[in-house]
């Protein structure tokens, strides 16, 4: 039983040289996902807001054209209302994609952590395997 534990710990220690931290490429990938997520969220919110605004303006123009009997205002209102509806509907998948990329930015990584424990002969540092969850918060290059 002890031999199995020793072999397992030895395998973890020897195989953990690449597990100490996320590599630069993983960090860059997470930062790239976060940047894309923020850009898509901004684009989706702009499309949503302008679509709702265009739809409301088109509805008002349609009502005014209907009351006045103006074919030009009526047609412009319908066109603007349809464009607003399309813009609003297209913003939904953009916002969903933004949320998906934001979730991908948070990464799980396996690593080795150390903990200091008090022993009768002094403070001893012990290593143990750990699961780390990181979310990059800074986007400065």
Automatic annotation (TrEMBL):
Keywords from the named record: Membrane, Signal, Transmembrane, Transmembrane helix
Signal peptide residue numbers: 1-21
Claim: Signal is one of the keywords in the record: yes
Transmembrane segments: 45-65, 72-96
Taxonomic superkingdom: Bacteria
Entry protein name: Uncharacterized protein
Source organism of the structure: Algoriphagus aquatilis
Taxonomic lineage from the root: Bacteria, Pseudomonadati, Bacteroidota, Cytophagia, Cytophagales
């Amino acid at each position: 039983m002890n031999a199995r534990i020793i072999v397992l710990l030895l395998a973890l220690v020897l195989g953990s040289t690449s597990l100490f931290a996320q590599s630069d490429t993983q960090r860059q990938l997470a930062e790239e996902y976060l940047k894309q997520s923020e850009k898509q969220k901004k684009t989706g919110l702009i499309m949503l807001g302008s679509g709702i605004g265009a739809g409301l303006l088109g509805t008002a123009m349609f009502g005014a054209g209907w009351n006045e009997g103006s074919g030009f205002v009526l047609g412009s209102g319908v066109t603007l209302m349809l464009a607003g509806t399309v813009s609003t509907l297209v913003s939904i998948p953009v916002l969903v994609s933004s949320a998906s990329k934001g979730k991908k930015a948070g990464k799980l990584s396996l690593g080795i952590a150390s903990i200091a424990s008090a022993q009768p002969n002094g403070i001893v540092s012990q290593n143990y395997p750990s699961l780390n969850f990181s979310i990059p918060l800074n986007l400065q290059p």
